[in-house]
Amino acid sequence: MNNENKIVVTSWTGKSWEMTPEQIEAAYRYRELQYRIDNAKNQLEFNADWIEEKYGCSIDEVIGYVEEFLQDNIECNVSEDSSWINYFMEMFNGKKDNND
Question: Which of 18, 42, 83, 89 could bridge 6 with an S-S bond, Cβ 3.0-4.6 Å?
């Protein structure tokens, strides 16, 4: 690979890597997804008792659906909150069967 296309990336700990712009983008998108999953988990855990009482779903079940949904359906033009809230509403209203 041509070294002209590589960028040296340094972490806050001082470790450095040579990465292509595509690798940097992929790493950024991966970390962004992890933040979205963590955000969704935090929101779900905050409402776990209500979800289990109202819908009969364990929080672990719902978190499993959320992780799969976020990995498969996140679109950068739609806010993350709107994406997963809409999914939950569909799932809890019986419109999502078998996590389709």
Answer: 18
CA distance 50 to 39: 18
> Between the CA of residue 2 and those of 5, 18, 20, 21, 59, what are the distances in Å?
6, 12, 10, 12, 48
pLDDT value of position 99: 45
> String of b and e for 61-85 (b: at least 16 CB within 10 Å)?
ebbebbeebbeeebeeeeebeebbe
Domain boundaries, the chain: 21-92
Compute the distance between CA of residue 51 and CA of residue 27 in angstroms, rounded to an integer: 33
Answering whether pTM is above 0.85, one says no
What is the separation, in whole angstroms, between the first and last Cα of the chain? Answer: 41
Could you tell me what percent of the chain has a pLDDT over 90? 5
All residues at 6 or more sequence positions from 63 whose CB lies less than 8 Å from its CB, including other chains: 40, 41, 44
